[in-house]
Amino acid sequence: MAKIRRLSIARLKLPAALKRGGAAAAKKSAAAGAAKRGAGAKAAAKKAVKTAVTKAVTKSAKPVAKKATAMAVAKPVVKKRATKSSQPTPIAAPATAPLAVAPRSDGGRLSQMASGLTGSEILKIAAEIRAQMAAGATICNLTVGDFDSKQFPIPEFLRDAITAAIANGETNYPPSDGVLPLRQSLQRFYASELGLDYPIEGILVTGGARPAIYGTYRSLVDPGDAVVYPVPSWNNNHYCHQLGALERPVVCSAEQSFLPTRALLQEAIRGARLLSLNSPLNPTGTAFSAEVLGEICDMVLEENGRRGPGERPLYVMYDQVYWMLTFGGVKHVTPVGLRPEMRPYTLFVDGLSKPFSATGLRVGWCVGPTDVIRSMSNMLGHVGAWAPRAEQIASAQLLDRPDVIREFHAVSKQAEQQRLETLHGGMAALKAAGLPVDALAPAGAIYLTARFALMGKQAPDGTTLRTNEEIRRYLLNAAGCAIVPFQAFGSKQDDGWFRMSIGAVSLADIDAMFPRLDAALRALR
Ligand SMILES: Cc1ncc(COP(=O)(O)O)c(C=O)c1O
Hints:
The protein is 44% helix and 12% strand. It is of the alpha/beta class. Helix 2 runs antiparallel to helix 3 (42-58). The radius of gyration is 27 Å and the shape is globular. Pyridoxal-5'-phosphate is lined by residues 145, 208-210, 234, 278, 282, 319, 321, 351, 353, 359, 364.
């Protein structure tokens, strides 16, 4: 009965796999499509599959897609849809091939992206630790990159300003690029503190720094574009996954304080779309020097100089959420500050979360070229990833008060530095005692990088420690020392490197941990 029509393959709801010429995939996918369309469509679909597979087998991949412009399809399939609803028929609709669903654990219920996405490894570990602590275990919790508000409260000025803003009725939608007073105060703040002059149109307020990162990726990176990021680093692998980007991780080692250099990056950035940098770095607490970052900027400028007029540029996302938290003589440096020519290619990611222990307030921002910022504002507006309005109003007031900020940091940064130095000193003492540990001197952020070179060591229960995960578990169970392996930051190497975060512990917690750690390390054979 089915009346055969001839249609362009591009307009047919045929599988992408078929268009690529893969016979097996085409068969599977066309059959899946037929199943979706229902039993009445089966005969027609069978015929479509047969024709498709024949073509896929007899032609090479590309010609199939190009030459098989006329295919047989059963009219009832099309007609049935056309008469059932007022929606455009599949013929009139743009080419949207049914997805060829590879076997997946979710049985095809989720998008491919969602089904392949993993949650935060850090939060998983942190949840385990919280549960053990709630059950009464004595643990020095060095896992989460967050703050215990009892140890690290937000500035009182900010708290009061938020309360006042709410009382003042600042409770509606904020504009999608942020309230003007905050963008203006950010403009002044960047100019005075970082020497960066940006127009208001180059400043976008976001709901914490995460949407600024997501927005940067989303605004610049197409599926298949190459993204270069150092390992260890925070979450770039997950953002790449969400975008379908081609990941180009560059492994950095302790010799470079785990920071990338021009020499390490130069192969990877060829033809890439985005270079993701972060300083001070999560997880290591180390920071770029002007020399190293300057050389990376020169490399980016040379790469963009090599690209032809029609080619898309390489951008740098510069995540500087910890820039206010540098210690000692460390001076924060930026790509645009070092090389003004980097301005068209640099997106700054920043926020209130870390410098003001305000992770729950969700105020962040992105600063960069106005065309990218405008597009990001539109895009994030659809997501609704704004910072709450009252927090924005209050943040604007805070950033205009350098005296309040100075006063706050005099206390909070000192408390952070003290904890980091106590941790570092404790690790140095263990090392000096001949135990197989190490740590890098902290330069900023709230992290210490520590090494527990315990691979191959035998625990008292007879088990041998072979992986970072096994070391993590041993230190947790034997010493109540909760830390995060570099695996949570994209590393594939079981080389004993870990992140220690100080935001949720007191000095007393750290002091009490070291004797336990000492004993646990000495118990290994
Ligand atoms: C390097 C880095 N960037 C961005 C963020 C996200 O910050 P926010 O909490 O403001 O989203 C974090 C959080 O840990 C971070 O470590």
